[in-house]
Design brief:
By secondary structure, the chain is mainly alpha-helical. It contains six helices and two strands.
Amino acid sequence: MHNQVLVGEAVAGASAKARAHVESLIANVNKQTFDLAEALYEVKKNGYYTDLFSTYKEYTESLGIKARKAQYMTRVVEVMNDVGIPRTEYEKLGIAKLREITSLDPSVLYKSPVDGLETPMQDFIKDFVANGAETDLE
């Protein structure tokens, strides 16, 4: 006997259904990542960890999250709040790009080595977020 191979519409339908499912899972992971980042920021900002732990690092490690991950997730929310960019705008960039962008200090001035002009670093951060969806991480 020969096995019947599904072709055409049946394969296309299964493929589309699988893709939609994967896209849904990715969207949920991304949303949960930023929900977690905001929750960690709130805990750190308000000192909610101090009743049981000496440091924020001890608190995050007790949750099973690596200290470095908690640090950069908290930093993303902190910097975006400091420069006034809402989550709806920065979330679409993804955590990898935001880690790079928020490594900048929004409180400093950048002095151009060419002409000596000073520009607030937060202007660069805002521009990176505004154009980040179309820009590669590199």
